[in-house]
Amino acid sequence: MTLLTQKFSKLVSADAIRAVTLVLFLVVFGASAALGSLATTTNAVTTADDQVAFTATATATITGVTKLPGGLTQVNFNTSGKANHLGDFTGPLTRIQDNQGNFGSTAVIVAANGKDSVFFSVSGRFESSKDKCLVTSTGTYTVTGGAGAFANATGSGTIVTQFDLCTSTATGTYTGTISKPH
Fold first, then answer.
1. What is the tally of helices (H) and strands (E) in the chain?
2. Burial zone of 161 (CB within 10 Å; 0-12 exposed, 13-18 middle, 19+ buried)
3. Distance (Å, rounded) from C-alpha 123 to C-alpha 101?
4. In this predicted model, what pLDDT tens digit does every residue of 22-31 receive, in sequence order?
5. What does the alpha-carbon distance between residue 174 and residue 121 come to, in Å, rounded to a whole number?
6. Could you read off the pLDDT of 36-68 as tens digits, one per residue?
């Protein structure tokens, strides 16, 4: 190799090393910045998802009863009530129950502002009382989402309800936690 070729090789090698170093720096810095941003976003979700006490009391009117195959019964309700963090609400509830005293429900409660809502999944047991009109249910609820101030809400707790089959009405209370509204 001539002296010129050796100097050119060293110059190109040094430039190549600098370029590779710069690229690696940018990749590593960019990845850590992205991970830092992700951590900040994750923390924001965690912060917004702080749980607060939740209580909802409601009355409901049975709007339909449908006998399903396999001994199941579907009961539809229109609910209205009051919940802390949400205020006055209305919404539908659908319950599927079997002949052994088990039930599962889904419900949506919509605040009076029409923008905020909470979605629930409920499961539990029910039993009839000596009074053939009354059925008492106990169970657990899981908050499965929401809208407005309760978008992506989570939470859980217990429920107690009482149905009066003779008047087609019900009353109930949900007690537990829900994500802090944002």
1. 1, 8
2. buried
3. 11
4. 333 333 334 3
5. 12
6. 434 434 433 434 449 999 999 999 999 999 999
